């Protein structure tokens, strides 16, 4: 501190530390200057009201650094040397003068000998032993400053500061070896505390500026200025910045001409360029005001730097990580509730970062052995660590950061006020945020997981930050008085050093130690009365009347009974004695140990016994209305007279109900491990307002109720939390209607059923497997099939990409699930969103009717104008609304006019209408616009404003009417006639005003423009219509279902014995066709089998694997006579998936040979092969004549470019393709595979293979020295052998040598295919 700094006012000093909220408390304690605070200790700060440990550490560290060399003010007597404030055990700060020091062995908390056995403790807790680590060498980064940044003109550098604090369990490895890159001398400037933003009112804080990037070429950036940072982004829509500069480091802002200005910081200079002089001057003025504001606080500058240094103690973890999208490793810092990204260690040292991530919206998920994803609503950050252990440490640090961001630490801060409670009672980890409320020990997260395994009879685990309800004032006081030290004086009095655990101990080691410590009582301090039950009980009755908690603990866990007979009729139990004596803490301790089991050595579990996770112990009580238990489903409404009021308690894994709250013997009990399902009934389902049902393994049903919905919800959450396995705890956050466990089979693993947890929320079924993997929810209204098989024992749910078989082991519970799922999968109302839907969000009822009329009624005269029979229309509409999946419209059974009338009545009776009441008037108003372009534009805007289901339904209907009017010469239904019929129907009017008809007429007439229909879609629709008409001409009568088409599909190769004649519905996908063929031949898909459907040329000159989601029927309509479909293994899929998983970015570029066949005067002329440079992005394939770059962009336009959506990709050479056709040749098989995989990924939104079984489908790749996990084999040969490329690609790509690898690009076909 500068001379005279001790007289600095305490208000200014605390303001520099960003702790202004404590000024009043300091001044009330007569602390007016910094010198007055020199003797403050941690306990005194707590009494002053500084409850947060981070704030206390910042103040003490600031005082320590301020007075380390500063002489006292003149005339001030030097105070005696005070005992230094102990640092946290996991923090080691070394000065440059400190030499290497031998690391002392840690003495665990549990190994310390007890100071006293029975009397209460009066002294403070012992200080942890000091530990030190060899000083790491300073990191010298020779890399030049980033572009756009200049070193300070004066050349000054900041003095070195102590190295980054290390965790205690990292010292043994990191302090003894210096092979890893050393950390920088100075930690970063972490985010400053929230400041008073009023000082920036009226100051512009964002706008576009130009910033020099590579080669000093200026690029436009969106710049934001707030109270903490000056940041710039690629665009104003970005959430995460490209660079952030702390406002506190800005010292000067100056103009350097040419609309440029320079921001000078303590370390670097940044140059920006504005659009004009006015904008530049405005930015300069704004930033200068901030700089002047900082200069006005110059006296506190030294203390501010100390405050910044103390803030670095908050860094939880830091180090280098690989991030997908960046070429080099980034320096990542996890600090409290944020994650900061830095380009390198030097930037971290200077405090100039890339961006930071708020962890309150983050989620961490492990991806592979070394990789993990940090997912936010705005972006997914894919990190990769150097080792699996390092990855686990990063994941744990980020999960703790998320918990910190979402939790409330008030209870933790109060309990941590006791010194011994700041470290885990079992392993010594700092800042433990879990506790055992019956043992009165504070423990870390890893030990808490092992505590749960001991069961609620041994230890009852709760979170200090999340289980707020359990932490009563008495329980908090109990932990403050008891503390880890008193508990360990009993439980860990005789721990051998060889058996003690540390923060780095593994799960098995922790489990073994905790079993010995708490279940067996191996290390406990035995009470002198141990073994004499009568004397133990008598001593307990005497101890509970005093404040000696240690004596009560020793007696209780040495065998005294908490419910022993006291011999006093008025106070028959020790709890009653404690209540009469006014010992609140004794009562609290006895209540939490009412069902605790004393340690027993004979309870030792063998090593061979598998370890099982016990359910958490939840406590809840109150009055509930209850009916007698039942063995049959509830079929009718229960009246209020059928309910009885009972006092119910949920404690220690038992739900008990009593006659009243005074009875001690329950009328009945339900053990939570026997609960299999919990049902939340709708309001007023019975005579009591809110009711819920509990199903047990014994096939009994219990109905409970409450008049208050909020109280019923609390009971539901408590019961659910007590019986749901921890692996499925994510389902507890859902507002479920039904929650429970069932046995099911899914996907390709159908040999054995597995147990899973299911939650029904509305029309969505959430599934969590027994290993804790959360599966993609099932949208029940979009199911393709819902049926019961095997004598009502299996419920089959068929979705587009997977099939789920739910087994009914318990009849009562299974019937409840069946009825609930069937109800949720049906139509629940009269609006579009409440109907059963297809994958494209079109109501299934509308899709069924349109398909039937398209196949059977396109040429029917007067279609939609002629009315069908009213009775048949009514019954058909009711059947479709009840369950459209079960209705199959067949020619001969259903008349075209009846189906058409059903569709019209559905739209007329629609609740909110197709155009919705909100937007219908705007659609009618748009008809008055005279300019056709303006009218079409208005229609497109109104279309975008509709809900997704309405928008998809309107497009499907208008597309259907567009097809109808194409046959107006036969059906007499022109666009005008269709508008007259459907205008009043869709707008639900009386038909007197023709505006409704004009809207429909405009939509049909401008169908292509309004709905953005391209030529490929139009051609596809025309091909479908042509195929349907050919079918009707070939067969004058038939009974095929709507949309079905029979074709021949081959298995593996085209032979007579491999033919399969399959009926292809309009909704069948390539994946479903593949499974259909495999099921017919009884072929079981094994691991690493990638069976796919291929479109193959007759001469086997080219083939194309169909994407699993492609509809088969349109492809059949487009096939020529020389093509067919075959189902076979796609041998290259595994390698393509591995390649896509390892690649960075979503585009590809490189050299390929290119040949184009042009159609000149009807002749196909080849231009020969030429080397060209290709760039494949998510929307375009561009061809460049040569590689020529300037800065970041290309110096010339591409020679050719094609929309990716309009391309089909064939493997091999196919001469029969119509021009324009382009041929691309790759040098190696691997190059061909990578290009082809990228095409598939881009055209299908990143999905190559169904995600249902990713673990089974990804195999271990062979290592290759050239490109990591991607194996490459150089192939040689002559060009005449290029036709063998198809066969080569279908075999093992690692064993086949082929001279050339070709792809044929064909434009002009429908966009759902890939070329």
From TrEMBL:
<dbReference type="InterPro" id="IPR001660">
    <property type="entry name" value="SAM"/>
</dbReference>
<feature type="domain" description="Rho-GAP">
    <location>
        <begin position="830"/>
        <end position="1011"/>
    </location>
</feature>
<feature type="domain" description="Arf-GAP">
    <location>
        <begin position="409"/>
        <end position="534"/>
    </location>
</feature>
<dbReference type="InterPro" id="IPR001164">
    <property type="entry name" value="ArfGAP_dom"/>
</dbReference>
<feature type="domain" description="Ras-associating">
    <location>
        <begin position="1043"/>
        <end position="1132"/>
    </location>
</feature>
<dbReference type="Pfam" id="PF01412">
    <property type="entry name" value="ArfGap"/>
</dbReference>
<dbReference type="InterPro" id="IPR013761">
    <property type="entry name" value="SAM/pointed_sf"/>
</dbReference>
<dbReference type="Pfam" id="PF00536">
    <property type="entry name" value="SAM_1"/>
</dbReference>
<keyword id="KW-0677">Repeat</keyword>
<keyword id="KW-0963">Cytoplasm</keyword>
<dbReference type="GO" id="GO:0008270">
    <property type="term" value="F:zinc ion binding"/>
</dbReference>
<dbReference type="GO" id="GO:0007165">
    <property type="term" value="P:signal transduction"/>
</dbReference>
<keyword id="KW-0479">Metal-binding</keyword>
<dbReference type="Pfam" id="PF00788">
    <property type="entry name" value="RA"/>
</dbReference>
<dbReference type="GO" id="GO:0005547">
    <property type="term" value="F:phosphatidylinositol-3,4,5-trisphosphate binding"/>
</dbReference>
<dbReference type="InterPro" id="IPR037858">
    <property type="entry name" value="RhoGAP_ARAP"/>
</dbReference>
<feature type="domain" description="PH">
    <location>
        <begin position="735"/>
        <end position="826"/>
    </location>
</feature>
<dbReference type="InterPro" id="IPR000198">
    <property type="entry name" value="RhoGAP_dom"/>
</dbReference>
<keyword id="KW-0597">Phosphoprotein</keyword>
<keyword id="KW-0343">GTPase activation</keyword>
<keyword id="KW-0863">Zinc-finger</keyword>
<dbReference type="GO" id="GO:0005737">
    <property type="term" value="C:cytoplasm"/>
</dbReference>
<dbReference type="GO" id="GO:0008360">
    <property type="term" value="P:regulation of cell shape"/>
</dbReference>
<dbReference type="InterPro" id="IPR037278">
    <property type="entry name" value="ARFGAP/RecO"/>
</dbReference>
<keyword id="KW-0862">Zinc</keyword>
<feature type="domain" description="PH">
    <location>
        <begin position="617"/>
        <end position="724"/>
    </location>
</feature>
<dbReference type="GO" id="GO:0005096">
    <property type="term" value="F:GTPase activator activity"/>
</dbReference>
<dbReference type="InterPro" id="IPR038508">
    <property type="entry name" value="ArfGAP_dom_sf"/>
</dbReference>
<dbReference type="InterPro" id="IPR052227">
    <property type="entry name" value="Arf-Rho-GAP_ANK-PH_domain"/>
</dbReference>
<protein>
    <submittedName>
        <fullName>ArfGAP with RhoGAP domain, ankyrin repeat and PH domain 1</fullName>
    </submittedName>
</protein>
<feature type="compositionally biased region" description="Low complexity">
    <location>
        <begin position="118"/>
        <end position="134"/>
    </location>
</feature>
<dbReference type="InterPro" id="IPR011993">
    <property type="entry name" value="PH-like_dom_sf"/>
</dbReference>
<feature type="domain" description="SAM">
    <location>
        <begin position="10"/>
        <end position="69"/>
    </location>
</feature>
<dbReference type="InterPro" id="IPR001849">
    <property type="entry name" value="PH_domain"/>
</dbReference>
<feature type="region of interest" description="Disordered">
    <location>
        <begin position="118"/>
        <end position="188"/>
    </location>
</feature>
<dbReference type="Pfam" id="PF00620">
    <property type="entry name" value="RhoGAP"/>
</dbReference>
<feature type="domain" description="PH">
    <location>
        <begin position="314"/>
        <end position="403"/>
    </location>
</feature>
<feature type="domain" description="PH">
    <location>
        <begin position="202"/>
        <end position="292"/>
    </location>
</feature>
<dbReference type="InterPro" id="IPR008936">
    <property type="entry name" value="Rho_GTPase_activation_prot"/>
</dbReference>
<dbReference type="InterPro" id="IPR000159">
    <property type="entry name" value="RA_dom"/>
</dbReference>
<dbReference type="Pfam" id="PF00169">
    <property type="entry name" value="PH"/>
</dbReference>
């Amino acid at each position: 501190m500068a001379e005279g700094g001790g007289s600095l006012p305490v208000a200014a000093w605390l303001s520099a530390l960003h702790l202004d909220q404590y000024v009043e408390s300091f001044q009330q304690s007569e602390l007016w200057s910094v010198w007055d605070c020199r003797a403050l200790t941690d306990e005194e700060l707590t009494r002053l009201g500084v409850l947060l440990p981070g704030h206390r550490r910042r103040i003490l560290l600031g005082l320590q650094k301020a007075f380390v060399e500063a002489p006292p003010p003149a005339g001030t007597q030097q105070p005696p040397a005070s005992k230094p404030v102990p640092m946290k055990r996991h923090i080691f700060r070394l000065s440059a003068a400190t030499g290497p020091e031998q690391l002392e062995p840690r003495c665990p908390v549990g190994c310390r000998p007890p100071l006293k056995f029975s009397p209460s403790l009066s002294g403070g807790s012992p200080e942890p032993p000091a530990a030190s680590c060899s000083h790491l060498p300073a990191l010298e980064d020779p890399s030049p400053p980033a572009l756009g940044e200049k070193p300070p003109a004066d050349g000054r550098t900041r003095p070195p500061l102590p190295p980054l604090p290390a965790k205690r369990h990292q010292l043994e490895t990191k302090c003894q070896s210096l092979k890893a890159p050393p950390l920088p001398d100075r930690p970063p400037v972490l985010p400053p505390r929230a400041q008073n933003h009023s000082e920036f009112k009226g100051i512009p804080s964002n706008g576009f500026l130009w910033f020099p990037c590579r080669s000093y070429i200026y690029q436009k950036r969106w710049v934001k200025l707030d109270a903490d940072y000056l940041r710039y982004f690629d665009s104003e829509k970005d959430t995460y910045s490209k660079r952030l500069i702390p406002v506190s480091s800005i010292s000067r802002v100056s103009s350097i001409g040419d609309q440029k200005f320079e921001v000078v910081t303590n370390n670097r200079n940044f140059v920006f360029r504005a659009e004009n002089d006015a904008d530049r001057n405005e930015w300069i003025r704004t930033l200068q005001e901030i700089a002047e504001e900082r200069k006005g606080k110059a006296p506190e500058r030294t203390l501010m730097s100390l405050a910044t240094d103390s803030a670095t103690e908050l860094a939880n973890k830091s180090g280098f990580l690989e991030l997908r999208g960046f070429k080099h490793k980034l320096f990542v810092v996890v600090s409290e509730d944020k994650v900061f990204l830095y380009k390198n260690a030097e930037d971290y040292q200077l405090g100039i970062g890339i961006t930071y991530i708020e962890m309150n919206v983050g989620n961490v998920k492990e991806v592979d052995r070394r990789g993990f994803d940090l997912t936010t609503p705005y972006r997914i950050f894919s990190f990769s660590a150097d080792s699996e252990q390092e990855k686990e440490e990063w994941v744990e640090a980020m999960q703790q950061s998320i918990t910190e961001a979402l939790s409330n630490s008030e209870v933790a801060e109060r309990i941590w006020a006791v010194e011994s409670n700041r470290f885990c009672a079992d392993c010594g980890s700092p800042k433990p945020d879990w506790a055992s409320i019956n043992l009165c020990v504070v423990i870390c997260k890893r030990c808490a997981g092992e505590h749960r395994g001991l069961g609620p009879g041994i230890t009852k685990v709760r979170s200090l930050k999340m289980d707020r309800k359990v932490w009563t004032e008495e329980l908090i006081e109990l932990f403050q008085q008891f503390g880890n030290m008193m508990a360990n004086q009993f439980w860990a009095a005789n721990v051998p050093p060889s058996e003690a655990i540390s923060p780095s101990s593994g799960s098995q080691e922790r489990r073994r130690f905790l079993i010995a410590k708490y279940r067996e009582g191996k290390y406990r301090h035995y009470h002198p009365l141990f073994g004499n039950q009568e004397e133990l009980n008598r001593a307990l009755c005497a101890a509970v009347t005093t404040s000696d908690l240690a004596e009560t603990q020793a007696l209780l866990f040495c065998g005294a009974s908490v419910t022993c007979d006291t011999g006093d009729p008025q106070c028959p139990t020790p709890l009653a004695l404690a209540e009469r004596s006014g010992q609140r803490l004794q009562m609290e301790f006895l209540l939490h140990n009412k069902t605790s089991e004393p340690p027993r050595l004979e309870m030792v579990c063998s090593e061979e016994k598998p370890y099982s996770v016990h359910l958490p112990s939840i406590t809840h009580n109150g009055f509930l209305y209850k009916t007698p238990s039942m063995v049959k489903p509830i079929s009718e409404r229960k009246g209020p007279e059928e309910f009885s009021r009972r006092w119910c308690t949920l404690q220690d894994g038992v739900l008990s109900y009593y006659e009243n709250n005074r009875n001690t013997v329950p009328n009945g009990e339900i053990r939570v491990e026997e609960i299999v399902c919990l049902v939340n009934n709708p309001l007023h389902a019975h005579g009591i307002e809110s009711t819920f049902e509990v199903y047990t393994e014994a096939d009994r049903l219990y109905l409970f109720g409450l008049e208050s919905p909020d109280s019923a919800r609390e009971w539901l959450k408590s019961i659910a939390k007590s019986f749901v396995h921890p692996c499925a705890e994510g389902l507890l956050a859902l507002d479920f209607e039904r929650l429970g466990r069932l046995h099911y089979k899914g996907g390709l693993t159908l040999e054995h059923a597995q147990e899973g947890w299911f939650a029904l929320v509305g029309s969505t079924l959430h599934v969590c497997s027994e290993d804790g993997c959360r599966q993609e929810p099932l949208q029940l209204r979009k199911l393709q099939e819902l049926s019961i098989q095997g004598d009502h024992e299996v419920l089959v749910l068929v979705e587009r990409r997977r099939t789920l078989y739910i087994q009914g082991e318990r009849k009562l519970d299974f019937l409840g699930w069946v009825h609930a799922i069937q109800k949720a999968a049906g139509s629940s109302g009269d609006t579009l969103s409440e109907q059963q839907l297809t994958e494209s969000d079109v109501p299934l009822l509308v899709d069924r009717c349109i398909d039937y009329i398209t196949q059977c009624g396109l040429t029917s005269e007067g279609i939609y104008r002629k009315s069908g029979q009213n009775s048949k229309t009514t019954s058909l509409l009711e059947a479709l609304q009840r369950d459209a999946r079960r209705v199959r419209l067949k020619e001969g059974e259903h008349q075209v006019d009846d189906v058409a009338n059903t569709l019209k009545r559905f739209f007329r009776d629609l609740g909110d209408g197709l155009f919705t009441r909100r937007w219908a008037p705007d659609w009618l108003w748009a008809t008055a616009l005279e300019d056709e372009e303006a009218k079409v534009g208005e229609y497109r805007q109104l279309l975008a404003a509709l809900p997704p289901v309405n928008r998809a339904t309107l497009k499907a209907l208008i597309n259907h009417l567009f097809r109808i009017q194409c046959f107006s010469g036969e059906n007499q239904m022109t666009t005008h006639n269709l508008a007259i019929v459907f205008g009043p129907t869709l707008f639900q009017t009386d038909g007197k005003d023709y505006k409704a008809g004009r809207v429909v007429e405009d939509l049909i007439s401008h169908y292509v423009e309004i709905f953005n229909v391209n030529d490929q879609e139009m051609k596809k629709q025309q091909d479908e219509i042509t195929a349907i008409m050919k079918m009707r001409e070939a067969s004058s009568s038939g009974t095929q279902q709507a949309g079905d088409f029979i074709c021949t599909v081959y298995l593996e190769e085209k032979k007579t014995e491999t033919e399969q004649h399959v009926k292809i519905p309009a909704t069948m996908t390539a994946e479903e066709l593949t499974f259909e063929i495999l099921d017919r031949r009884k072929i079981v898909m094994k691991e690493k089998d990638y069976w796919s459907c291929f479109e193959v040329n007759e001469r086997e000159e080219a083939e194309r694997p169909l994407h699993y989601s492609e509809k088969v029927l349109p492809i059949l309509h487009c096939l020529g006579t020389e093509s067919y479909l075959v189902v076979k293994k796609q041998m290259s899929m595994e390698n393509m998936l591995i390649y896509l998983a390892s690649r960075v970015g979503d585009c590809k570029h490189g050299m390929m040979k290119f040949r184009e066949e042009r159609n000149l005067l009807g002749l196909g002329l080849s231009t020969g092969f030429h080397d060209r440079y290709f760039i494949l992005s998510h929307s375009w394939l561009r061809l460049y004549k040569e590689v020529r770059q300037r800065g970041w962009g290309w110096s010339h336009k591409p020679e050719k470019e094609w929309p990716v959506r309009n391309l089909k990709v064939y493997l091999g050479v196919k001469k029969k393709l119509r021009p324009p056709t382009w041929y691309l040749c790759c040098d190696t098989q691997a190059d061909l595979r990578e290009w082809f995989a990228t095409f598939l990924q881009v055209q299908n939104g990143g999905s190559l293979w169904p995600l249902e079984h990713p673990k089974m489908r990804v195999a271990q790749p062979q290592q290759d020295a050239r490109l990591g996990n991607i194996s490459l084999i150089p192939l040689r040969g002559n060009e005449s052998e290029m036709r063998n490329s198809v066969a080569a690609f279908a075999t093992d790509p690692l064993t086949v040598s082929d001279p050339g690898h070709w792809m044929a690009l064909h434009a002009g076909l429908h966009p759902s295919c890939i070329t």
